[in-house]
Predict the structure.
Amino acid sequence: MTRRSSNGKVFEWNYKDNLDLKTVNKNLMIQINGDRFTDSTTFDSNKCSLVSSLNFKCICGIGSNMHHCEAAQRWTEYAYRHHSRSFDFEKDSEIFNDMLTLAESDSAVQESVQQIKNDICRTVTDEEFFCVGGRGYTTMLEVLTAFALYDKPCGYVQGMNFITASLAYHCNSATAFWLFTSLIEDYELRENYLNGLEGFYERAQSISELAKVEIPEIHAFLVTFEMITLEPVMSLFCNMISLEESKHHLEEFFKRGWKYFNCLFINFLECNSAQIFMCEDQCDILSLFKDYYHCRGGRQSTWSQRIALQNKSTADSYSICDVDWEKLCRKS
């Protein structure tokens, strides 16, 4: 299989069967940069070494190697069903590292790096993992820098940083990069970011048509969907969903694509119908949604803590994990 970067270099390789790497302990649950983890056996120095060698922070369990979790392993399987071969961590990592090397001497890419760094610092503000020098920060920087080389006509666009943050929480730079490029190419995110935003307007129209059928009163009240769908479409909703909950969200998107996303957006509007109907004009509506779209950075205001069903009598937070995922996905 051959991939061509925008600078004309062809990356070509022959694939053998996937590496049969033995998992050190697939049931191990880890929290990086912390002292807590659980396992059925007693702690020993080998496990301590294992924790320090991991490149992700979630506690989903280890995948086929120590560079991504079990969830990310499944995502590669979903993503690569569009290809004639499976994800090969060893070979794909080599190509990714080659691109990082090329990016260092590419002036056009380096012009984008400062903007990338600025946006990374604003993406997740309450996690040491994503602070400058942290593993999450490094993963995001490497993924977005490599992508700026890989697809120069598209390049880096704001919104991509939220997607890469969610990926970085679950896997290392190489795995995150190829998952991200799969989202861009195989799941048609690329059209959202190109000049003219033609892809975005098509997404907004699809959501509007679905809302007209599923939630006609809200649809009529909102009038236009472009202004409230821009940020969730550009960030794939990752600007609103907490890192812990991103596992469920990315799992469903890699499985079902935009049909799932559209249904999730309708679900979100239904959950916030009371607040929507309290708005007096379009400016109030935009302010309401802007407030949600920018809450992702702090744990005290994540979507899971703020979104609430109106008929809920308790003060308990309504989590995206509590969504009836099977019912939601049947709609798609």
Q: What stands out?
A: Residues 125 and 297 are 5 Å apart (CA to CA).
